[in-house]
Amino acid sequence: MITLTTDFGLRDPFVGMMKGVILGINPDARIIDLTHGIAPQDIRGAALAIAEAFRFFPRGTTHVVVVDPGVGTHRRAIAASAHGHRFVAPDNGVLSGVINTDPRARTYHLNQKEFFLDGAGGTFDARDVFAPVAAWLDLGKEFDELGVQISDPHTLELPAPIIKESEIEGQIINIDSFGNAITNVRASDLKAIGEGPFRVRIRDTEAGVVVCYANGECNVLHALINSSGLLELFLDRGSAARSLGLEIGEQVTVTM
Amino acid sequence: MITLTTDFGLRDPFVGMMKGVILGINPDARIIDLTHGIAPQDIRGAALAIAEAFRFFPRGTTHVVVVDPGVGTHRRAIAASAHGHRFVAPDNGVLSGVINTDPRARTYHLNQKEFFLDGAGGTFDARDVFAPVAAWLDLGKEFDELGVQISDPHTLELPAPIIKESEIEGQIINIDSFGNAITNVRASDLKAIGEGPFRVRIRDTEAGVVVCYANGECNVLHALINSSGLLELFLDRGSAARSLGLEIGEQVTVTM
Amino acid sequence: MITLTTDFGLRDPFVGMMKGVILGINPDARIIDLTHGIAPQDIRGAALAIAEAFRFFPRGTTHVVVVDPGVGTHRRAIAASAHGHRFVAPDNGVLSGVINTDPRARTYHLNQKEFFLDGAGGTFDARDVFAPVAAWLDLGKEFDELGVQISDPHTLELPAPIIKESEIEGQIINIDSFGNAITNVRASDLKAIGEGPFRVRIRDTEAGVVVCYANGECNVLHALINSSGLLELFLDRGSAARSLGLEIGEQVTVTM
């Protein structure tokens, strides 16, 4: 099974071409679109998305993650084994959330060009490099047939919340298509400062923590622990992001 | 075969996660996206979409329909057998168009939590409840292994046209991505008032009924019976909805 | 294997219905979305997209291409064999780029209505005609069981660049979702006028040709030969189309 995560959108036939290349090598491959809606060149957004989503797939799945502003430069193409899954991506930090969280992760520089698409150019490595390598991995090729192990993959520091005695300083790390603002504060972080009830503050607005969307009073900002175990700000039947003009990176404070 | 209909959009990895959960239980499942473009929390829009679309799939298909403003509250999760198809959804009326049109429909409250995803929270039942149940149904589990039969599913009154002696009062029930305005008036309703030719009136604009889009004069409002057998207002090579500012719920009158 | 290219978008269940019809006839069909994001009724855009994309799929793939402003009129439904692939489309020029480039291409008028969906109307031939015919072709039906060979398919002149001694006059033929402007000038056209370096001019702006996106200076217009072998204007980490207001059809001049 192969999943695809990119910033290509669905307007152009780019994703379709990747699938054609995979199926040309591996006609029985199962291909699942994870998302092609990562904001253009948002490496951090893609890193957060794949770190969250891979675990819902069976072990052994191969995940292709391509947000690649450096395509065509000397940045390496890499593959990784982590958490029992396989990953293929440019070496720009997009796999940070899966490599950094598994001490037994191994990373490889994909330097065996015979597994790339013939006549590959320099501007569409998703189709010419990452898709065919994923097809070969899914067929059973070993990582060390496709490349050489490396110990210095490029990684990003994904923002962690600052936990004080009775307060947590987190930040917004994503805004979903409903306009909910997802923070980097985990349910376990809340436990570290007490039993609650908690108050969440963003700018001058306070929000109480409830357990489901429908428990929020209409048009009043609330927060809940979402399906990823992360604190999320929402407006029941509205868009918290649009109403408050929330942006990724904004600070959120949790107190008891 | 399993189809998916949601209001999740395709920007976030939510739909991909649902597929991962299904394939973890049922690795050979065929999964077809019906649409993820239902307007956020538009239960009525989803009810109309699934009622129209299910019949183009083979009997025995399992359809997952999730527009779910009440996720995490005490609203039930249900499954239904109707028209030889299977459906899985929140109990909020989203299955009205399939349950109400089959007198032999049976509905079940999904209360057997061992078929849900382990550690399911309260905010993403599409992934944690509906996806795994659909995977099990597609594998051959019986409805009464997954829940108990109920006789009181929540249903919506989908708007019906008012048919008088020589006039029909209908309304716009959907606007598609071409800007065509679809009404609740059926071809059979037209037969009830005569042989035609018919005139369709919306506000102060009149439109004659033609048989295909290309028969409409450029930039003049026309109507036709669409591929679902419903009366539809359109502007050839333009957007009727944008040009006239049409909205769902607006009244449309048909006369001979 | 069957690919789908349409202007239907993904908001409505139209594409899902096509898949249901295909799978009803051919339950084991592999269906790949090439794109549903062709601009509404942009026959030329679809012709360029399929001409570029089909080659990344295995020979024998069946490609359904539906941009069809004439649906319901007397325009023919056609199928074609070209480049070892199969194509199904309305006879409006959308297959020009695949028929015109293979001297051994054969084209057929799809007139055997027993292979259409029962009770087919006149407004949704993608579902009622093209999807079922593609399902039958993929199952092994021969073209001449489905229709009769014709010698006069409707074709479009896809715009070719004008190559002078030391200058090429091309034009923008597509703008992708990153805002890159793709021209009809091929790498081989550049070779015809010299060894370079080349300068690309659009309106009053000049751009040098580099080899990858990251080699463009930030916020300065550059050009490269893209993954399809076509000259493309881009702004590294920006949208060339939005910044300069570029449009399809605009002239681009290449000089040494």
Write up this protein.
In chain A, 23% of the residues lie in helices and 29% in strands. The longest helix of chain A has 15 residues, at 125-139. In chain A, strand 9 (167-175) and strand 10 (181-186) form a beta hairpin. Chain A has helices at 14-25, 43-53, 96-99, 125-139, 143-146, 187-193, 240-244, and strands at 2-6, 31-35, 62-66, 77-82, 85-90, 106-109, 148-150, 162-163, 167-175, 181-186, 199-202, 205-208, 221-225, 230-235, 251-255. In chain A, helix 1 runs parallel beside helix 4. Chain A is elongated. The first copy, chain A, is an alpha+beta fold. In chain A, strands 8, 9, 10, 11, 12, 13, 14 and 15 form an eight-stranded antiparallel sheet that branches. In chain A, strands 2-1-3-5-4-6-7 form a seven-stranded mixed sheet, with helices on both faces. Chain A folds into two domains: 2-150, 3-Layer(aba) Sandwich (Rossmann fold), CATH 3.40.50; 162-255, Bacterial fluorinating enzyme like (Elongation Factor Tu (Ef-tu), domain 3, Beta Barrel), CATH 2.40.30.90. Chain A contains seven helices and 15 strands. The A-B interface holds A 1, 3, 5, 10, 30, 32-37, 49, 52-53, 56-58, 61, 176-178, 211-215, 224-227, 229, 236-237 and B 8-17, 19-21, 23-24, 27, 40-41, 69-73, 121-124, 127-128.
Gist?
The structure is a homotrimer of 256-residue chains. Chain A is of the alpha+beta class and 256 residues long. Chain A has helices spanning 14-25, 43-53, 96-99, 125-139, 143-146, 187-193, 240-244, and strands at residues 2-6, 31-35, 62-66, 77-82, 85-90, 106-109, 148-150, 162-163, 167-175, 181-186, 199-202, 205-208, 221-225, 230-235, 251-255.
